[in-house]
Amino acid sequence: MKGSYRLKSKPQEDILSSVKEVIQLLSDDFSVVQSVPSLSSDFLTAKTDVIDTGQYFYSSVSSFLSDPANESHQSGVCRSINALLAALSRLLILADIADSLVLNQQFEAVLSGITEFQSVSSHAELSRLWNTFYPHVLQLISLSKKRASDLIDLEDRRKIESANYVLKNNTPLLHTSCKVCLRYPDNLIPRDSRTFVSNSLSDAVELIQSVFNGISKSNGIRLRTSGKLLEALDEFEVIHCVVMN
Q: Angle, nearest 10°, between helix axes 71-117 and 123-148?
């Protein structure tokens, strides 16, 4: 055998445990896919590919660790790493696309709802609209907060945080101002208040849109174990698959 291989610095149990954890995680459906049915078939294919290549990698590593001097086991580990990383990349790209589509759905739903509040004519209509509108606002806050954690620019993060603060605090004011408008239809003050609150909410949504639409290359979503696994794979590849001449 040419050259020599350095001993691993990460316990084998950590690497194999990371692979097991990802495979177990992928046994459950991504919740985001439920909101994007058009991608469900692609997700199923990509998820199955990751599970299959993960099991292939797990088997290759186990074989290598049982006989590190066997060159066929060494090359098998390298092949399985490449296959698993390629499968993970495809899955993460799909997940990022789905996440972006869901976020855009919330943009449209919230902006449309803000417009509808301007023409509410009864308390029953207001109640119906509020019960539909408020969950969209909460979903938008949650999604934008999650994606903001991947932003590199601190100023962009600050913008998202400020916009979410406005959405969280001013949305109930929109509901209140609409109720007052219904109770006192001839009073200009509650109508002006409703207009002011509506504009602040629209500005907040558009600010979030501008931040995310201004990113030319998305940083992707974060799975709970993806970083841990990719780090382990990278270290494993460097340690075990590079021949030291």
A: 150
